[in-house]
Amino acid sequence: MLLENLLPGAGAGAGAGVEEPSWSFTDLVDHLRAMGLAAGETLLVHSSLRSIGTIAGGPAELLRALLTVLGPEGTLVVYTACPENSDTSRMARALVEGRSPQEQSRHQAGMPAFDREVTRSTPLLGWFSEEVRAHPRAVRSDHPQTSFTAIGRDAVRLMAEHELHSHLGPHSPVQKLYDGGARALLIGLPIWNITPVHLAEYWLERPPMQLYGCVMEDKWGRHWRHFQAVEIRDGHLEDLGRHLDRELTDRVEGQLGAAHCYLVPIRKAVNLTFAFLQKTNS
């Protein structure tokens, strides 16, 4: 999945022996507004806190700055996925690599079921996604592997009805972000790190399918659930990034602290991705 290629986002400190500025709440608000972030919009944020530099107050101040700029009519969205909840993902296979079949079985038998109220997002997504997930006003979608979390006016609607077979597809928050004209803010990450671009894979005439597995808990108790769904591929993302860099002319670039940022219209990025996939798959 896309998040398995994300740059590490944990930690906002400076390198040893290098004195860096400490970015204040006011600095962050000013930088966000300078990029053209508007009150009332819906914004998906992917971030590497390390790229920003030292934030006075840590991730909570970045969250406060974003919510301040978006205002009471806006909605902030982050990706809070859990690829560890699997027996098929690269991350899941790495966790049991070198173990005997019996040890692998014990590991899978002891894996906790997904609980959208308490299950943490993967550490690969960094501190900011977890900061948003744990916020008292946060609303999380109910997918055990590719959940999103939102805060704001439209959070409940955006996070509703995230179907199991639609990780990043037409029955997920991704489709609603696309339909609603939302934008994505990439903080210190390459332009191809826009999770919604995977929506275009569902539009292919014959998208490749994959067997997925995850641990769930429902009225029948804790159990493994296996299902077929569209295979989410990431081998083409760097080539896609070059395509988006060339064709996504209405993106905005700016700075947040020390981080280079892209502010990208999600609908345009997905449409360009679909054209790219059609060409490369023909």
Automatic annotation (TrEMBL):
Reaction it catalyzes: a 2-deoxystreptamine antibiotic + acetyl-CoA = an N(3)-acetyl-2-deoxystreptamine antibiotic + CoA + H(+)
Keywords for the protein's UniProt record, in alphabetical order: Acyltransferase, Antibiotic resistance, Transferase
Enzyme class: transferase
Alphabetized InterPro entries for the sequence: Amioglycoside_AcTrfase, Antibiotic_NAT-like
Keyword Transferase among record annotations: yes
A Pfam family per the record: Antibiotic_NAT
Enzyme Commission code: 2.3.1.-
Domain of life: Bacteria
Family, per entry: Belongs to the antibiotic N-acetyltransferase family.
Name this polypeptide is given: Aminoglycoside N(3)-acetyltransferase
Species name: Kitasatospora cinereorecta
